Amino acid sequence: MKKASHGCHVRKKEKVVKYKECRRNHAANVGGYAVDGCREFMASGEEGTREALKCAACGCHRSFHKREVEREAFWDCSGDSTDK
């Protein structure tokens, strides 16, 4: 466990990935640029299935959506943690 400057300990770091607006260019085949306006990826099915990679809102694959990585840290300030 790492000790933070304010006396608490970082127990675990978790990476959270979110998929935002769709960036698929629907007019690419005619030399233009047009997006569908989908603002956030919503899975069409349960995690672990093929449908989980398809957006319920726009029908595109998840890879067309902007990927954002957020990092969260969980702190343990209970006072009974020890440095190892």
From TrEMBL:
PROSITE patterns in the record, alphabetically? ZF_HD_DIMER
- Which Pfam families does the record match to this protein? ZF-HD_dimer
**GO MF terms on file?**
DNA-binding transcription factor activity; transcription cis-regulatory region binding; zinc ion binding
Q: What is the superkingdom listed in this entry's lineage?
A: Eukaryota
Q: Which UniProt keywords apply?
A: DNA-binding, Homeobox, Metal-binding, Zinc, Zinc-finger
**Gene Ontology BP annotations:** regulation of developmental process
| Domain ZF-HD dimerization-type positions | 19-68
The answer to whether UniProt assigns keyword Hydrolase to this entry is: no
Q: Name one GO cellular component term.
A: nucleus
Keyword Zinc included in the entry's annotation: yes
Q: Which PANTHER family match?
A: HOMEOBOX DOMAIN-CONTAINING PROTEIN (PTHR31948:SF171), ZINC-FINGER HOMEODOMAIN PROTEIN 2 (PTHR31948)
In Swiss-Prot or TrEMBL terms, this protein is called: ZF-HD homeobox protein
Q: Which species is this UniProt entry from? A: Acorus calamus (Sweet flag)
